[in-house]
Amino acid sequence: xKKIAILLFFAAMHFVVYAQPKSKPGISVCTILNGICxxxxxxxxxxxxxxSVFNISYGIPGVSKDVLYKGTQCYGTKNKTDxxxxxxxxxxxxxxxPKSVNGSKxxxxxxxxxxxxxxxxGGYDECSDKENxxxxxxxxxxxxxxxxxxxxxxxxxxxxxxxxPLEVSDKFRYISAQQILAIYTACQDVRGAIRSIIxxxxxxxxxxxFKIDENxxxxxxxxxxxxxxMNAAYAERQGQVDSGWSNASVALGDIDQQYYIxxxxxxxxxxxxxxxxxxxxxxxxxxxxxxxxxxxxxxxGNPALIAFQGSADDIFPSDTASVYFSPDSSRSKKINxxxxxxxxxxxxxxxxxxxxxxxxxxxxxxxxxxxALKQKNIPVEIYMDCTMEHGMDTCLAGDRSCVxxxxxxxxxxxxNDVYSYIAARTATFFFTVLNGKANKLSTSRFVECRNYxxxxxxxxxxxCAYSPPxxxxxxxxxxxxxx
Length: 483
Prior knowledge:
The protein is of the alpha/beta class. The protein has one domain (2-482): Alpha/Beta hydrolase fold, catalytic domain (Rossmann fold). The chain contains 10 helices and 18 strands. Strands 1, 2, 5, 6, 7, 8, 9, 10, 12, 17 and 18 form an 11-stranded mixed sheet that branches. α3 (133-143) crosses α9 and α4 packs across α5. The longest helix is centred in the middle third of the chain and has 26 residues, at 177-202. Mean pLDDT is 89; it is low at 1-24.
């Protein structure tokens, strides 16, 4: 019945289109957006067709620096030494946008779709990129639900310290100086990409026939990409970034740089209406451990957030955790994870706190962010999977021995089905935010529970193992005991 209703809705629009003057052919974006609250976005908009454009540059050649560490072998040739290269090659993005509905071309003349600016995962490793099938699938699924979606590349290059601070029984690894620098440059690029996308819209230089509503932007990502996107959305001031990342600006300059076609005069904060977090985290100063919500004090924006994470995540905390920076390893390792000199804006070496056994920063994942944003009355919706680790399980077709646990209570056994569910819940939440109703949602936390909520109809039609409306006390421990 739902699909029939959607087809009838677009059939009516189809009639309106052909009743219009020839100077305005096709279905207007305005018409689609005006009717989108009558659509159930569990599935893509009926008969929608996408178009795309690839590798649009957003950087300025010869300005940014990028590091390629010794031993990196992603594309054939193995690096024999650490090298510093022009970061321009990594500064580009792909775009997916609605082209037609039911065969009728979408007219972008008067209105633009809201945009979602996405960043891939991969731990900031040189071998990760925006062509990862997961991020591509999510971007396309979001675009099928009424968004222009950008899949952005950023600078990468990291050395990972495999040691763990076992003395404090912590399950997370040390964070190396090289990781801090990689995260910081990625955060610079995320901000530069958002500004550049706004700039291209303002100058009508998108590289294709689409239009975005620059006043209604969303951002998000997977894992490392999510961390960088949330940094752009919630760390509005230089001090917020430096306090969590060992003052990396002393080595790489301010977080907002002139490396991009969208310069620092463009303020994107008022345009950001929401964030999609897929198993990411926010890192902050250790002093905020008692009340992480204070991190958001003084911000002008603080957009709404929808988050997905597994409670068994061993990369980022699903709730909260202390963070330990790598101690000096120069005597026992060929690489000193406590210091880095390559590819810095300022020439002196970057060194991090070398005192072991003491926490250096604090990180909050989906549960921790949920609590903090709820305390600030910021709209937030989270989904917790009680058996999922960092990222979804990978089960190959025909492998009956593989157990797919990362389904967020949906019962799905395939990554793409879960990504479609994530896209559906995100689209529903984002349009609810745009309609000013997100703070009225009666249930905002889903633990191993499928959410069937319909767009702009705020009834809670779910099949949770607990009773609405909120149940913030229901935890993964409860789920595992019940199971």
